[in-house]
Every structure is written in C-alpha cells, then in structure tokens.
Design a protein that fits this description.
heterodimer; A: 221 residues; MetI-like fold; 80% helix; B: 265 residues; alpha/beta; D-Maltodextrin-Binding Protein, domain 2; 2 domains; 5-stranded mixed sheet; 12 strands; Solute-binding_3/MltF_N (chain B); signal (chain B); Amino acid ABC transporter substrate-binding protein (chain B)
Chain lengths: 221, 265
C-alpha cells in the first residue's frame, strides 16, 4: 500500500532551517528546566513548611501538572489566559506550559529524593546550631539534588520533546514548527519528519550522555 | 497439470499487480476521501456530528460516478499526505491548493474549486484593509495557501508577526480574543465564520491581493488512470451544472471560473 519515492536531497536542503529550529528548542528546554528547578525547590520548601495554604498550593500544582496532558497545559497557557485578556506570544505560552509541567514533576522527584535522606541529618544540622532554613539549604538540598539528578535528566529529555506541542499555539520557529511549515510548503512529509526525529534523538541522546558524564565527575564518593 | 496450475497462478498474480488504484476502488466498492472537517462551508460537522459541506457532497458525487459508496475520512490539513501515502484514503477532496512544489509529491486533478482571499480583522485592531495589516500580529491555518502567502508577505513587510495555528477554529478563537489582529482566509470561510456568531468582535474588512487560489483533487502521483478519471469528473460536474448547484447550496453568489484564461491545461 505504501507507495512513495523518498527524495532525501530535497529534505537535506532544508537542514539548516531545521537546525536553527533545533537551537530554539534547546533554548526553550533549558530555560524551562532552569525556571522549573527553582520553582520545584520552592514547592518542596512549601511542602516541608507544613503550612496549610502553602501545602495546598503544592498539592494543586503537582496534581494538575502530573494528571493532565501537557498539551492541555500549554493550550491553557495560550487560549485559556487570553480569555481573561492576557495575551502571551506562542513562545512565552509554550515556555510557561512546559515550565509548569517540569516544576510539578520535579517537585515529585524531589519529594522522593528527600525520603532517601534520613531525618537524622536535619536533626544533626539543627543541633549544630543551624536554623531550619539553613539546615535545608546547606545539608538537605545538596543531597536532594544529587539523588534527583538523573530523574532531572529525564525531565530535560521530556522538556525537549514537549516543545513539539508548541504548534498547537501557533509556534513556528522551534524544530517541530519549522518542520511543519516546510511540510506544508513541499508535502515532503516523510523525509522532513524523519529528519526531525533524528535531530530530536541526537539532542536527547547528548543530554543523556552529558548528564551521565557530569554525574560520574560530580558524584564520586 | 502442474504447469497449467503454475501458469494460472502466474497470470493471476500479474493480473493483480497490474490493477491500478481506479480498479482497486471499483473492486473494493468504497471510495475513501480525505476531507477537512474544520473548514466550513467546504467541510464541517452538523449538530448531529455528521460530515457536511461542499467537499463532502463532492466526494459523494464522485463515489456515485464510480458506482461505489463514499467514506469520508476526517483529515486535518497537515495530515493529508500521510493519510494518502499510508493508504488510509484514496483521494483527497480537501480544498488543496495545486502548487508546483506540492505537485512534485502528489498528483493533482484540474481545479475543482477556486477561492478568493479575504481579510478578517478584530474590530479593536485598527486593521481596515490588507495594507493596514503591516506591523500587526496576523495568522492563518498552518499548511494552507493563504498561510504560505501571508507569511511571505509579513517577511516582505519586515515588521509584524505571523502565527500559524493548527485549525481554522483556533485562528478565529485567537482573532476574537485579540491574540491576532487579523487573518487572511478564503472569503467563503471568512463569511461562514463571521455569520456563525461564534466569534464576537470580528468582521471581514476586505479582499487580500493574492492570486486566485485554485484547489484540486489529489491522489498518488503515478495513478494516471485515476487522475484521468478525476479530470473528466471535474469537467462533468461543471458541464452538468452540478458544480453551480453545489456552489449555490454551500457558498452562494457568483460562481468562480475554474479555467485560467489564455492557458492550456
């Protein structure tokens, strides 16, 4: 049934445009991870504080981020907030959507990591005269980030892949958006998307290998 | 005896291999059309979720001409080619512009419909014509003729922003929310959406000076038998007055000419 002649030359001619798009994808993923990690640390702090309203914020955030599709979160960040008169560009909407998702998942990762750190550590730190915040920042947090490092790489990979959902909110200069634009122009669907898939694969593989090398260097006991 | 069996088997297989798509459709008794159902009045769903519109009727006519039953396969704009190449549909009746770039990949019939382009704007945007769109945030449905032309125009203007959305509904939603200042769409789509009353604060403000957008039926590039049939079918639709009838039913107004003056095709 599948009758199609592949014209790779036509697709390779578009490679520079696609690589420009890949840079935007990487930039989006890195930004969303950086902001996401900070937010997740804050959320984790909220959770540890045991102050009711703060814990409620964390629970709501994590529940929505983990139990609804990322597509929905990005869509809301664009069309949802616009119905309240707030107009965000596709780039910002996509960044907010992915960051929201990242923060939710990372907060859960951090919770798991915290469980692996014995309470006695905090108590020891407190007995050395640190206040609760100092104990968290100087003793618990570094260990937590170390344990959560590899799960964080997973989230980075996921963030790269999630950028492809940006097309639903009008994003057209990330890797997936560029690919779709070129597809509409040329109808070379299979070549272009195969190429995009390879670029996505290479990007995520670099992240994984890079993370493993960093982990091997940083976390030697 | 053995030889005879082998010979018949050989004949049978070569016979099958020579059957082209036109034969396959007739033999299967079903014509599967890719139709975009997010593109009123060409294709949409009515209150009871049934496919309706010009393209739907056109597919039904085509199936009737072939003596088979029609099956409407809902296909969003960007998925037309994968649907065809993976064999999920036989023919695209999907308001597809017959660009040369695309004709390198798929086979087009002669045009079966022609669109004029119109500018629709948000009332608060200050856009009153095509030229006043310069410097504004404009958008259209990704993968359409008008999206390609509009993106080029925004690049040529050197200011403003172009945003492609995935569906016509998203474009008009963004337009009525004020996320987009204006859009270029086919005038039929523009009129239908403004009249629908679903999108507050938008109105058609004028024509867009793009070339007439001729759209054609498409199928696999090498299926000459089928393409030949499609060409004759389009011709017959005009000849019998069915084209005019369908145009009056779904669009109304002056029926666009499907031929280009002073040119062969």
């Amino acid at each position: 049934m599948f009758s199609y002649t592949f014209q790779w030359k036509q697709a390779f001619a578009k490679l520079p445009l696609m690589l420009d798009g890949a840079l935007v994808t990487i930039e989006l993923a890195l930004l969303s991870m950086a902001i996401g990690i900070v937010l997740a640390v804050v959320l984790t702090g909220f959770r540890l504080s045991r102050i009711r309203p703060l814990v409620a914020i964390v629970t709501t955030w994590v529940e929505i981020a983990r139990n609804t599709p990322a597509l929905f979160q990005i869509y809301i960040a664009h069309f949802g907030v616009a119905s309240f008169g707030l107009h965000l560009s596709p780039y910002v909407s996509l960044l907010i959507g992915i960051t929201f998702n990242n923060a939710g998942y990372l907060a859960e990762n951090f919770r798991g990591a915290l469980k692996a750190i014995p309470d006695t550590q905090t108590r020891a730190a407190r007995s050395l005269g640190m206040n609760p915040i100092q104990a968290f920042v100087h003793v618990v947090l570094p260990q937590m980030l170390r344990i959560a490092f590899l799960p964080m790489t997973n989230q980075m990979v996921w963030a790269i892949l999630m950028t492809s959902l940006g097309v639903t909110v009008g994003m057209n200069f990330d890797l997936y958006g560029v690919t779709q634009d070129l597809n509409a122009l040329t109808f070379r669907t299979f070549e272009l998307f195969a190429l995009a898939a390879v670029i996505f694969y290479v990007m995520t593989k670099i992240v994984q290998i890079g993370a493993r090398l960093i982990a091997a260097r940083l976390f030697r006991y | 005896m053995k030889m005879l069996l082998a010979a018949t088997a050989l004949l049978a297989t070569t016979g099958l291999a020579q059957a082209d798509k036109l034969d396959d459709i007739i033999a299967s008794g079903t014509l599967r059309c890719a139709v975009v159902l997010d593109f009123p009045p060409m294709g949409f769903r009515d209150e009871s979720n049934n496919p309706q519109g010009f393209d739907v009727d056109y597919c039904n006519d085509l199936a009737a001409a072939l003596g088979v039953t029609a099956e409407i396969v809902e296909t969003p704009f960007p998925e037309r080619i994968p649907a065809l190449m993976s064999g999920r549909v036989d023919v695209g009746v999907a308001s597809t512009s017959d660009t040369l770039e695309r004709a390198k990949t798929v086979g087009f019939s002669v045009p079966y419909f022609a669109f004029e382009m119109a500018v629709t704007a948000n009332e608060k945007s200050g856009v009153t014509s095509f030229d006043t769109m310069k410097g504004k945030v404009v958008g259209a449905v990704a993968g359409t003729y008008e999206a390609i032309a509009l993106e080029e125009q925004v690049k040529a203007w050197g200011e403003g922003e172009f945003r492609p959305y995935q569906t016509q509904a998203d474009v008009f939603l963004a337009l009525s929310q004020g996320q987009l200042d204006a859009t270029v769409s086919t005038s039929t789509v523009a009129q239908a959406n403004v009249k629908s009353g679903n999108y507050a604060g938008v109105q058609v403000v004028g024509k867009a000076p793009f070339d007439t957008d001729y759209v054609a039926l498409f199928t696999n590039r090498e299926e000459y038998g089928l393409i030949n049939f499609l060409n004759l079918f389009v011709n017959q639709q005009v000849r019998t007055g069915r084209y005019e009838e369908l145009y009056g039913k779904w669009v109304g107004g002056e029926v666009p000419n499907l031929t280009v003056p002073n040119a062969y095709r």
